[in-house]
Amino acid sequence: MSELRKDPVIDRWVIIANERSLKPYDFGVHGELRKPGPCVFCEGMETHTPKEVFSIRGNHTEKNQPGWTVRVVPNKFPALRIEEPFAHCVDGICESLSGSGAHEVIIETPDHYLELGDLSVDHITEVMYVYRERMRNLEKDHRFRYCIIFKNQGASAGASIQHAHSQLIAIPVIPKRVKEELLGADKYYQEKNRCIFCDIVQYHQNNNQRMIVENDHFLAFVPYAPRFPYEIWILPKKHVSHFMKTEDQELSYLSEILKKLLVSMKKSLNDSPYNLILHTTPFERKGEKSYLESYHWHMEMLPTITKVAGFEWGTGFYINPVIPEDAAEVLRKNIPDKI
Amino acid sequence: MSELRKDPVIDRWVIIANERSLKPYDFGVHGELRKPGPCVFCEGMETHTPKEVFSIRGNHTEKNQPGWTVRVVPNKFPALRIEEPFAHCVDGICESLSGSGAHEVIIETPDHYLELGDLSVDHITEVMYVYRERMRNLEKDHRFRYCIIFKNQGASAGASIQHAHSQLIAIPVIPKRVKEELLGADKYYQEKNRCIFCDIVQYHQNNNQRMIVENDHFLAFVPYAPRFPYEIWILPKKHVSHFMKTEDQELSYLSEILKKLLVSMKKSLNDSPYNLILHTTPFERKGEKSYLESYHWHMEMLPTITKVAGFEWGTGFYINPVIPEDAAEVLRKNIPDKI
Q1: Residue B9: closest CA among chain A residues belongs to which residue?
Q2: What are phi and psi of A95, to 5 degrees?
């Protein structure tokens, strides 16, 4: 059984999830070597996972049977459990929450040997569609304040299973990092009456030194102060606070830009592992502050090239050995014309 | 030339230090394998490093010659440079500082094959003495607001050179993570008129389930909400805000507890890589808020067992698969009686 515990000094929650110590590990001891398929996420192995909660599948195919393109199942070794009742406990300097939440795995393809960047734009659009639909569904559970979707690609980026998948975690508190962004963006909005992310979009359209690629609806660039070499942010050009509000047509533009970036990253960074993270506004709840005007959803792609070490843990600052403008030039050069 | 850049949304500075991409790497491609000595940090190789700024050495031995036990040199591939003049630049959403600062390497032993935990308590006391003296020295440079000292042990903890060493970075801003702790501790102090760390010391003296080891002056325990499996905090029992104010005799008590913990970690965690981080109060500067009453210096030891992945990057929260009380029990059991 999991438990959320709060650090008594700073506003940081930690999920103590000892069942996860049992989870299987697909990679070799030296990192990125892969085991051959089939694995439990493969087509034909559906009965080896918890029962699916959502899927995109052909007509006349049955749940938990082959015939799907994207499939969502609860995590077998969850950090949090949906059936756990909500409980809050304060005992002196110790504050805890029961581990109630959702932890789902979004299997991106039935094929053991494909990565997200190998999929067609249409297939990636289906993955993005699933992200949106799961978020819309979990919003209805009023225990949850926030839903994070992320992808760990490769062992050194934290993946334990090689078969292409993303993860979703819905939690009863607004995460520290999200709160920092919400407050930073809100402060800017109070001062200037403008969304800071809209201003960042405009800035990059006028200054192309860190721009990588854009299309009608999205823009990808290396941020001004990236923590990691070749860090990339993807922003919708139009102001939208919630990823959940993204329209179908926009999802395909998002997928087009994702595909181009993944192809460029593979070529530029020698197939580096990476994390992909979706940052969106917390679920709207009665009596809670709204960030509709000031916050703007976006994605971060973080290649795993440098190691986080004592300096970063001690300061919350980062040392990045690659000049952001140089990183953007490399990534821009390797964006394919056609995909 | 380095540059500090501030993220426009949140209060996080990043050091863009492209010279560091040139630094040598002592470990094999698969991680922890080591190259045999001698290396540039070994006794007899003093002329291969930048000139020493401090050392503990025998009488009648000369600077930059053999005969030392602990030696401090500027980092050859510094994140920041002491000779860089201070400059601050704001251009719309982009804010930067010149890369002025100190980046030093504290070589803990002349012996290529010893680790910090292999050294005698007296020798570790010398290392702690050097930490304190360098901090006292750098306080005099009024460009600096904060000095962080940390140690990365092992390749997966971010070390690039195997020879036992710590690092010191003095910077012109108070780091984000430090500010969070200062503010959290100050809030507690305003509410209760007590130091939260003093209360944590008292809590652990009354509740031994996460205690590991203590002596007359220090206490080591697994914190209530640790980010990482087997994370350890070391606190002085007496309220002291600045590590710089630690007295000689206390340094030897600190070293005794460090030695015991390092021996236990080695045995408990199969020689896991780790980060050691010294958290202290910012330098006292005229016109700046003081945290003398509310903040309490301490050390964090973070074994590198789990990987930081998408969830952690996206939320600032952590998933820890080991129950803190279980971790403490293992570490406690392996504390040696005699050292």
Answers
A1: A184
A2: -125, 130
pLDDT tens digits for range B112-159? 999 999 999 999 999 999 999 999 999 999 999 999 999 999 988 999
Q: What are the helix (H) ranges across A207-270?
A: 248-268
In the block, tokens 């959702």 appear at A102
pLDDT digits (tens, 9 = 90+) for A106-163: 999 999 999 999 999 999 999 999 999 999 999 999 999 999 999 999 988 999 899 9
We find that the CATH architecture of domain A1-173 is 2-Layer Sandwich (3.30)
Q: Phi/psi of residue B125, each to 5°?
A: -60, -40
Cβ(A132)–Cβ(A56) under 8 Å? Answer: no
CA B103/CA B286 separation, integer angstroms = 24
Q: Which two tokens stand for residue A277?
A: 């993270």
CA distance A127 to A148: 15
Contact A315, B176 (CB under 8 A): yes
- A vs B: CB pairs below 8 A: 242
pLDDT at A200: 96
pLDDT tens readout for residues B272-307: 999 999 999 999 999 999 999 999 999 999 999 888
Domains A1-173 and A176-339 share a fold: yes
B33 or A325: whose pLDDT is higher? A325
Task: Say whether residue B277 is in contact with chain A using an 8 A CB cutoff.
Answer: yes
Q: State whether residue B153 sits within 8 Å of chain A by CB.
A: no
**Chain-chain contact of B225 with A14 (C-beta, under 8 angstroms):** yes
Q: Is the pLDDT of residue B30 over 60?
A: no
User: Is A309's Cβ below 8 Å from some Cβ in B?
Assistant: yes
A10 — contact with chain B (CB < 8 Å)? yes
Say whether A18 and B326 touch across the interface (CB within 8 A). Answer: yes
Q: What is the fold, at CATH topology level, of the domain defined by A176-339?
A: HIT family, subunit A (3.30.428)
A61: distance to nearest CA of chain B, Å? 33
Left (φ > 0), alpha (ψ -120 to 50) or beta: where does B92 sit? left
Out of B165, B242, B296, B298, pick the active-site residue. Answer: B165
Nearest to A169 among B157, B311, B316 (CB): B311
Partner residues linked to B97 by β-bridges: B4, B88
Which residue among B8, B180, B324 places its CB closest to the CB of A10?
Answer: B180
Q: What is the SS3 assignment for A277?
A: strand
Check A300 against B313: CB less than 8 A apart. Answer: yes
Residue of A nearest to B276 (CA): A310
* Catalytic residue set of A: 165
What's the CA gap between B217 and B251, in Å, rounded?
Answer: 9
The CA distance from A89 to A244, in Å, is: 32
| Chain A residues closer than 8 Å to B273 by CB | none
**Sheet containing strand A13-16, strands side by side:** A88-91, A94-98, A3-6, A13-16, B318-320
CB contact under 8 A, B181 and A10: yes
Which chain A residue has its CA at the smallest distance from B201's CA?
Answer: A93
Across the interface, whether the CB atoms of B14 and A317 are under 8 A apart is answered yes
Q: Measured between CB atoms, which of A21, A31, A314 is closest to B150?
A: A314
Nearest to A82 by CA among A21, A134, A14: A134
pLDDT (0 to 100) of residue B31: 60
The helix (run of H) or strand (run of E) holding residue B152 is: strand B146-153
What is the predicted ipTM? 0.92
- Percent with pLDDT over 90 in chain B: 78
The structural domains of chain A, with segments of one domain joined by +, span 1-173, 176-339
C-alpha count within 13 angstroms, C-beta hemisphere, residue B31: 12
Alpha-carbon span A179 to A177, nearest angstrom: 5
Paired tokens of B59 = 């009488």
Q: Reply yes or no on whether B279 is catalytic.
A: no
